[in-house]
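Chapter summary example: a protein plus phosphoenolpyruvate.
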Amino acid sequence: MIITLEPGANAEQAVARIEQILGDESGVELRKYTFEGAATSVVELHLIGNTGELRESAFAVLRGVHKVVRVSKKYRLLGRPTGTTESVGFEYNGVHFDDTRVTVMAGQCAVDTREHTAAMFAALSEHGLKTSRMGVYKPRTSPYDFQGLGKACLPWLLEQAAEADVRVIAVEVGDERHVEEIHSAINEADCGVGVMLQIGTRNAQNFELLKHVGRQQTLPVLFKRGMGLTIEESLNACEYIASEGNSKIIFCMRGVKSSLGAPHRNFVDFGQVPVVRRLTRLPVCIDPSHSVGNLDLAPDGLPDLIHAVGQGLIAGASMVLIEFHPDPVRACCDGHQSLEPRHLPFLLEYVACVRRAYEEVIALPTP
Ligand code: PEP
Ligand code: MN
């Protein structure tokens, strides 16, 4: 059962009254969740366990209660309540991640040299980008491939980002140790740069890792759809994160594994952006780099990868995670699909242009 409070209601008082009604032996657990919407924040009190005997009306009459619903839906925390259009979104380290704007997280697949990352951050800074991506722990298909510089690079990576006024970097984590190393590095650097923990496609059902990033609530999570998982399985994985208390989550589409996607690296699944937005309140990100996986040009002169960005944005995605490298030939990982800093102005203009088209389209009267 979910009890939604009125905006501004006294949550502590409501919790106390509900606990009184439940009594000591109810076997029903009460959990409080706060969702930051674009305009208001909403407090929900979830009653978990055997709620069959409880009457909604007993809670509906309490001061500060807006509505009480029995949940049958699968995505208890992240699911979109029927009839609502607002997405959850959140603010982290001065950056807003929600569906009222498009955020571009551009950067290297993997951190390699200080010179490369400095050049990358300088390019972002030149164009006023506050968000980036930088792989530190790289999960590779072969154990003999470059595995990332690991925690050793975190102090200077954060310092460099601070110098460029980049506020948030997406960094993939593979286990709890990585999360702890990132927490310590942020605390030690104390330079105002934050990290968004990226759950890679290979860990989309690593439930212990999902629970761990959900238990810590300081860093938000960018969850990548499992490469061979249905939308339902991937959304349930996000619920694992949220159910531990962290609902600062972004859902990222990155293509699914299928030979039918060839010659792209994966089958581009951005047609399902509206599905995720309908089923949940999560902001949706697209990763064209790992979806398309090459820089081949279409006859109109645009790489398929850029076309994929447009396909995601026109479908309502509000974030783009995309690989760049200042010298792709020298990249330790995924140079073949990395754009260069000289492409950044075009990308940003293209993103703004498609977003404008999306906003115009949704403002049209529908039949
Ligand atoms: C990445 O974004 O660096 C990455 C490895 O992506 P994915 O987990 O989608 O393969
Ligand atoms: Mn990559």
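Key point: The first strand starts at residue 2 and ends at 5.
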